[in-house]
Amino acid sequence: MSTQKFQIPEWAYEFHGHKCPFMPIGFLMGTIALEKLGVEKSQNHEMHVLSEMGVGHPQGCMQDGIMASTSATFGKGMMEKLHYGKVAATFWYPRKGGVRIVLKNKFQDKLAPHEFFKYRKQGIEPSEIPDNIRQDIIDIVLNAPVDELFNITMLPGFEYKPVKGSFAKAKCEECGEYTFERYLRVKDGKKVCIPCAGHELGEKVFYYPSFK
Amino acid sequence: MSTQKFQIPEWAYEFHGHKCPFMPIGFLMGTIALEKLGVEKSQNHEMHVLSEMGVGHPQGCMQDGIMASTSATFGKGMMEKLHYGKVAATFWYPRKGGVRIVLKNKFQDKLAPHEFFKYRKQGIEPSEIPDNIRQDIIDIVLNAPVDELFNITMLPGFEYKPVKGSFAKAKCEECGEYTFERYLRVKDGKKVCIPCAGHELGEKVFYYPSFK
Fold it and tell me: Which of B25, B27, B44 has the most A C-beta neighbours within 10 Å, making it the best mutation to test the interface with A?
């Protein structure tokens, strides 16, 4: 299987904001996940993506590519970060199980000496790097066979339980802004939003996926 | 200022996966934020968006619209959730300060009785709702004047400190996968990734923005 059959639409670059190699890598990961799970892109709230990326490191652009090819978007609540610091993601689709796709070390080593990264390590932003250098590294990605790029592990028993949704909301009794019930707190007997409650950001409520 | 001057490109709907009113609402929020801060869309890593949305409630689609109009994307690390459960976001641009935009209660009340939500509350996914109903509610959004839609608060002194990035990575000494240094841990004297360390998901390292 060659990646050359994959067409990256121009709008994916427009969405992302610049041309770089990692958005296309993510686009391929997402496309392969759809193929492996035997599903179409997610019009609504079907596929969930657990990205192993975190903060403060490069290559996160991959996640925009995954969203562009799968429509399992952050906005729809279909993508979250596991904060493992790896160029990898697990894709889960109801009743289909999961698949984990990770960018091979060897391919990362192949890309590393490319001139693109010399610029990046000097703090030069992607859009400021000469077009021909960016196109060259994108072509290296798009011309690579899939098995040079990725380790792919099918996870048929993988389970993920999305949070149960609710439309219920009420006005914060202090600032008056509508707040969904899950995030209302109580202060002096009044139902208030988190900022009006004076809670610190560290008290944010996280709901972790239930897999081990 | 009318929102009618805003053109929502077709690719934004293709990215999002379906037509609904909240992606366009987010698209407008992002467009207005760019105007108010006097900046262009973010090709690289310029504008940060602190979305007040959380999990388990509707209207998150707004965030895909914000990403589409600003290119301040989740993949590039430019968008995160504050988990306040509000249809609101603060936009921060280096040396320009911030602006907070919140969807007015009154406009939320105006939309609430629309047939679109009757379907949604029955658990019917957006793409399954008749096209004319979806177009009607989108038109209500796009025909509304900006001051009917949003409360806009300029925050000239707003500060946000992005995490300092690093390219440093190493192979996990157990599974062998490349891991960015921030996420390497130590187990029995070996540098290992978080899953190989056996750490629980609840131990994820979060870096909170430094504003109060």
Answer: B44
